[in-house]
Amino acid sequence: MSMKTIQIQVNGQSSSQQVAPRTHLGDFLRDQLQLTGTHLGCEHGVCGACTVLVDGAPVRSCITYAVACDGQSVTTIEGYGQDPVMKRLRDAFTVHHALQCGYCTPGMLASARDIVLRLPEADEERVRIELAGNICRCTGYMGIVAAIMSVLRDLSQNPDAEVNLLRGGKHGPQTSERSATIQSERFEGFSAQNSGRVAESQQVVTDAALVTAVSKVTGTKVDGFFEVPCSADDVWTLMTDLRRVASCLPGAQVDEMSGAEVTGSVAVKFGPMSASFKGRAMLELDSQNRSAVLRGSGQDALSQSRATGDVLYRVQSLDQSHTKVFVELTYVLQGPLAQFSRSGLVQEFVRRMIADFGRNVAGIIQDPDRQRAPSAAAINPLAVFASILWSRIKRLFGGK
């Protein structure tokens, strides 16, 4: 196949290269220039992972011929350097947990930069529409959208001369033929409201007869139990007091109470990861069977992750001074933190929380004057991993 010489500027460096006419820009960048930060996904121009800037505008490098970029300027993820918009986006993506595996991130950042420059007044719905061409299989997009919105808000409140200069260039007011096409197209966008399942889980159930031993939430289940050196009557009395139940949960804070409903937050820490889910919960009791369900949902303000869960527990008397409490947690995580819901690490983390919960129940019964809830202690991921590995080794050899 005959080769063609092109003059191209990549990340500010001019270069003369020979390429085959049918070589795509993405392959050219990766194979000939060794700029492997540009990722190739679908190779059909659908997923957006390969998005780079050509003369300042985002293009799909997997369906763009390298020869078509002769005489043009290309910017890849390696070339943003001190770009004022990209610097803000990188920081925002870190703060809002907007990346996980990182495969889509180079293309996502290129599209995000275009949104910030071209649509300074964009709202969340518009940002979601603009991101429709960038597919992420990990995050659920909430962290990505939150990161972009935070940059837009910050630039609105604190204008940046360098960013305004970029907006006044190729990304100025939408008067071009390209922008007119964008304005005329119609999309069916996402609603920025909570999903129906989350909204349903927030409904208050006041009839004790509706309490069942079946979770209303469909998600990841973790069960366990703990024993306390207290009578079943004392344990059940504590379990029917929502404020005292909340005080036994590590990291929990009660803000308001109304009957069997509580509003507050639960803070969790897992190594370097931390979150504080603010929301509400409702306690449903079945006194006859000494069982209860604590149903709750909340959202982490930083990552925009949502959590919905049911905690089912049943009190069983072992003897006059010993009680066993069976606990089953069913939960759903949505958003950037959802990656942890599928791992054995988080399940071990929950089991440790159940054990801490049991110790706190015994502590409050034995010391009724204890009022403050324990703080959210950081969990060492290495210790949790070692615990999981050891438990699997014991099961492998028939241990309990």
From TrEMBL:
CDD domains: fer2, SRPBCC_5. The keyword Hydrolase does not apply. The keyword Transmembrane does not apply. PROSITE patterns: 2FE2S_FER_1, 2FE2S_FER_2. InterPro entries: 2Fe-2S-bd, 2Fe-2S-bd_dom_sf, 2Fe-2S_ferredoxin-like_sf, 2Fe-2S_ferredoxin-type, 2Fe2S_fd_BS, Beta-grasp_dom_sf, CO_DH_gsu, Diverse_Oxidoreductases. Residues 4-80 form the 2Fe-2S ferredoxin-type domain. One of its GO terms (molecular function) is oxidoreductase activity. Keywords: 2Fe-2S, Iron, Iron-sulfur, Metal-binding, Oxidoreductase. It comes from the Bacteria. This is 2Fe-2S iron-sulfur cluster binding domain-containing protein.
